[in-house]
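quick one before i forget lol
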Amino acid sequence: MLRKILSYGVVSGLIAGGVLSLIVLTLEGAMPSGYSMAIGYLTMLVALSLVFLAIKRHRDRDLGGVIRFWPAFGLGVGVSFVASLIYMLSWEAALAISGMDFADTYARAMIAAQKAKGASPEALAKLAADMETFKVQYANPLFRLPMTFVEIFPVGVLMSLISAAILRNPRVLAARGG
């Protein structure tokens, strides 16, 4: 089972992390953040669909077509954990290669968005102070790494819950004899 967790997790992480790295390295600043976030989360869902495939393959090939909820969920969470680690490392590599100062870019975008909405000078000053605090925190890897991990891991847990709930029924996508 560990082999399945590692293989599916690495492939899933490489898909999600690869697209993330591609966005950071090639489209820096060229795409509105709403589109890049949508593409990012869609990519996470596509990549984490491997959770479903890992559980189904384990159920059909190793367990004779039957799996209980908790073992299926555990397999899914394991795949999601490995994928999240790869995703986190991909983000770090993309930042290191591109030299992008994400915290500064994010802070400027947040302040500009609030200015466009017509925020008061007091609100803008408070936001600017909050963003300075964020920049200091984000420079610390002990803050940045878990923050990146938590971007994708809850999506993986959700995919694991759904997949385990669906695939515990042996009649759903039953293995074909051949």
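fyi Residues 84 and 150 are 8 Å apart (CA to CA).
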